[in-house]
Specification:
alpha/beta, 3 helices, 3 strands
Length: 81
């Protein structure tokens, strides 16, 4: 059986670095969004933050292989459009 895929993400443009709690909140909400068990779905996470992420956030995403992107990392691509 082929698995389904879904991309879940969150953007935070406020001041200060995004912490572990923001990462955990979205990951913990996954069962509410994915219609069946997480094992049957390939879930990809991405988080966007204007000022970056705390060390705790970086550690937290290692478990779920989430992508963390800052505005500085995205800005060159945005300017190229």
């Amino acid at each position: 059986m082929e698995s389904e895929g879904i991309l879940l993400g969150e953007a935070k443009w406020g001041e200060g670095k995004v912490g572990r709690d923001v990462i955990r909140e979205l990951i913990d909400k996954t069962p509410k969004v994915v219609p069946s068990s997480k094992e049957e779905w390939k879930v990809h996470y991405v988080f966007f933050a204007r000022e970056g992420f705390t060390e705790a956030a970086h550690e937290e995403v290692k478990k779920d292989r989430a992508l963390l992107l800052t505005l500085a990392e995205m800005e060159p691509d945005l300017r190229a459009r």
